[in-house]
Amino acid sequence: MEESRVKKSLLNARVNLIxxxxxxxxxxxxxxxxxxxxxxxxxxxxxxxxxxxxFLNLAELGISTAIGYVLYKPIFERDETRINEIxxxxxxxxxxxxxxxxxxGVALSCFLPVIFPSTGFSYGIIYFAYYSFLxxxxxxxxxxxxxxxxxxxxxxxxxxxxxxxxxxxxxICQMLSAWYTGSYYLWIGIELFFGIIxxxxxxxxxxxxxxxxxxxxxxxxxxxxxxxxxTKYTKQLFMHRLGSFFQFxxxxxxxxxxxxxxxxAYFGNYSTIVxxxxxxxxxxxxxxxxxxxxxxxxxxxxxIRKVFSELFSLRMLIAGTVCFPLYQLLEPFITLWLxxxxxxxxxxxxxxxxxLFITITRGVVDQxxxxxxxxxxxxxxxxxxxxxxxxxxxGGYLWGLPGVLLxxxxxxxxxxxxxxxxxxxxxxxKNVMNYWFQFGYQLALVSISAVFMGWIWKxxxxxxxxxxxxxxxxxxLMAVSYGGVTVLLMYCxxxxxxxxxxxxxxxxxxxxPWRKKN
Length: 518
Hints:
Elements: H1 2-38, H2 40-56, H3 63-76, H4 80-109, H5 112-115, H6 123-142, H7 147-152, H8 156-180, H9 184-209, H10 217-223, H11 228-249, H12 251-258, H13 261-285, H14 289-298, H15 301-337, H16 346-372, H17 379-399, H18 401-409, H19 412-428, H20 433-456, H21 468-508
């Protein structure tokens, strides 16, 4: 079982990494073509419309995550009958969610003239884009819901292969369309067409992988009450999805609201790079999510904590290795890619880097909370959302784009304090001081590496803004040297950290009020 778990995680990571590189290369090239051939305002318009539709997708309520958690045990036990029942319940629930999104989408479309009063585009283009994006998102609720089983069964590489292949072909077609015709309608139509094609291919593959899978929406309606834990976890996860939405999906809309549609496109250039780096980390480490759920279902407490510690250290190392070169080299890349006129103030880059670091490092805690089914802290994402959106609105009103981005880093108290406390107290049932000492120690190590390497690179004669070759050479050397120094510090300091943590816990007392026994 352990070998199979590791094998599937590595396969997921390998497939994700290959497609990540391909998508990364084509995305940067295609965005320049879209900006040149279709214009900044059109790119900003489509980004803002997608943000609006992501708000509608909150109606999904976190059902797929709840179903994924409920599936871990029957997958571990190879209970095909129960898996069929759970997927049928998912189909029934998604059918209703799809209908709700249709109704909400039609209602929201009535307000598009208010949201976009003077964009320079005809409302024919705006409505065509809106309903095409809406139709693409609805396919997942009515046809693609069975892919949840692939994710829970550590076979997300199947989804990645077909989805990313379709995405690559779609982007190529859109580039050709933009270059030769400049037609907004054709570009949008290609987006919808490939969403439909992907759905047919994905379901054909699911039938091949699971020939015994026979989901039935009518059966799901009858079995709905048999699985009350799905409803329970769904209610809890809805608040978590709401928090995630306000943290990530509202930013482009707020940039448009407080600055301009053009600035939304300029900011989109920066966020595209940051999002691609975040996607890289998710492709490498997110593939372990189902493995974590499978490991927790196995029930070996010592192994669970050991894997958590290893994954946390790995995320800290990767976060530093990604964020340090990003801070040093983002502006030269924008200059080479699009031109110096697209450079934004430096504080915007700093806030994006900090937010990326927080997002990467918090991932392992979130993975294990989901693996344990600890979703009941519905107040936490609500508090995170309130803090986030309040700071973003006030900051956007006072300082524009930098103020909007402050919202993304303002809820660190929830991410950095409450979430680890919850995991250690109700999941591991161990003293949370172990986590905070490890986090503080490793944060110091990655910071020392950043200061040291930042000083060293002042004397390096390479100029990253000279050419793309020079930039990639700098990025490679910077990441390797920073990562090497950090690994060395972590390796040399491991025993010291363990001893320091042990002595500190003895000083504060290991039997703190919130600590529970095994």
